[in-house]
Amino acid sequence: MFRRCDYMVKEKKKEKESEGFFSDSFSVLFNPHKFVFDFKQSTPKVSTSQDGRKVESVVWHRPIVMDPVLAKKILRILEKNVEKYEDKFGEIEIIEKEKNEKEVEADDAEEPTYIG
Fold first, then answer.
1. How many CA atoms lie within 13 A of 18 on its CB side?
2. What is the pLDDT along the chain (116 residues), one digit of tens a residue?
3. How many angstroms separate the CA atoms of 75 and 30, rounded?
4. C-alpha angle with apex 47: 42 to 48, nearest 5 degrees?
5. Where are the domains of the chain?
């Protein structure tokens, strides 16, 4: 049997897990057994110190792990739905960024050493 405070904590956790998550970037890692889609949300954090303002970036992650078959099914579903979206609202324009030192295309990345 749960004590009241344990129950409340579990309910708050469920509530938080069910909230939507806005993602402004993501990465994909894989091995022979699974795919990891790591959705990220970046938010600036401004802190004031005696020396002045300091702006940092805070990143939250929501990784989703799945087997390769499900990853391929999701790919097909996304392709169909993006096509329907573009038929209705027009083509989605992708603005290509120039590569910089911090940005590496997935094809250029080294083999991942960690998968959650």
1. 6
2. 444 444 444 555 555 566 788 888 989 999 999 999 999 998 887 777 666 777 777 888 899 999 999 999 999 999 999 999 999 999 999 988 765 434 444 445 445 544 54
3. 15
4. 160
5. 22-90
Residue 26 CA, chain-centre distance (Å), reads: 4
Tell me the backbone φ, ψ of residue 79, rounded to 5 degrees: -60, -45
Closest CA to 64 of 21, 111, 13: 21
CB-CB contact of 67 with 29 (8 Å): no
User: What is each CA distance from 33 to 36, 55, 112, in whole angstroms?
Assistant: 10, 39, 14
- Specify the DSSP element, H or E, that contains 84: helix 68-89
